[in-house]
Amino acid sequence: MDKFDANRRKLLALGGAALGVAILPTSAFATLSTPRPRILTMNNLHTGETIKAEFFDGRHYIQDELSRLNHFFRDFRANKIKIIDPGLFDQLYRLQGLLGTSKPVQLISGYRSPATNNHLRARSSGVAKHSYHTKGQAMDFHIEGLSLSNVRKAALSMRAGGVGYYPRSNFVHIDTGPVRHW
């Protein structure tokens, strides 16, 4: 009887894994598995800057383009730059693929220095003390013309990190930390 239960568990686990792979959004899976360039077009709503960066050439990250993105994501209040986790750019690129859009991403907040984070935290209960923004692993944004709730749903479906939903402030938060949402 125990041998039958063990085999049954193995069969159920394999079937579940196969089903999980079968229902993955194929376009989202192909977005990162296909070796092709990854390009982001963004506007920084606080600085007025615009960027179009091909940060991955199909095989490797392009360091000069990552540096440009790091500067674009800088803490504009303190004029401090931090290396941004390239996985965040991958996540954003994949999200645009899921949403079927190439419209510019409207960046609201990228890197925040600890001093800026503490300043914002004193003014709002929605700012985490140990924010992933201070680690270069988070961004707040929206995409012009797309429903914020659809952006949130697509981000949640990726299960790639944290997803915060702020409809009153008109932005979605994504980060490369553990999978969670609020």
TrEMBL record:
SUPFAM superfamilies: Hedgehog/DD-peptidase. The keyword Amino-acid biosynthesis does not apply. Keywords: Cell wall biogenesis/degradation, Hydrolase, Metal-binding, Metalloprotease, Protease, Signal, Zinc. It comes from the Bacteria. The keyword Flavoprotein does not apply. Belongs to the peptidase M15 family. Its cofactor is Zn(2+). It comes from Jejubacter calystegiae. Gene3D superfamilies: 3.30.1380.10. GO terms for biological process: cell wall organization; proteolysis. This is Murein endopeptidase K. Pfam families: Peptidase_M15_2. Pathway: Cell wall biogenesis; cell wall polysaccharide biosynthesis. One of its GO terms (molecular function) is metal ion binding.
